[in-house]
């Protein structure tokens, strides 16, 4: 099925990475703890976040909600957005079109 989008994919991923970073414990999705995450240099962190964003984006094509750390990412197909939550708090909206 897949997530439909009209924006440049690289722009969506850039916005998505910034949203995922706002979720408490997002690195747990990568099977890391806070110390593991902090031990990575900035480039390694950025690479991990981009990979995480790619993986979640494609998984949302078959599962509309994915748990990430203390929050979740939701695909709102009717509004053509991804919604990133930290706990119950909406922290980012990524526009797909």
From TrEMBL:
Organism of this sequence: Paenibacillus marchantiophytorum
The protein's name in its UniProt record: Uncharacterized protein
Lineage, highest ranks first: Bacteria, Bacillati, Bacillota, Bacilli, Bacillales
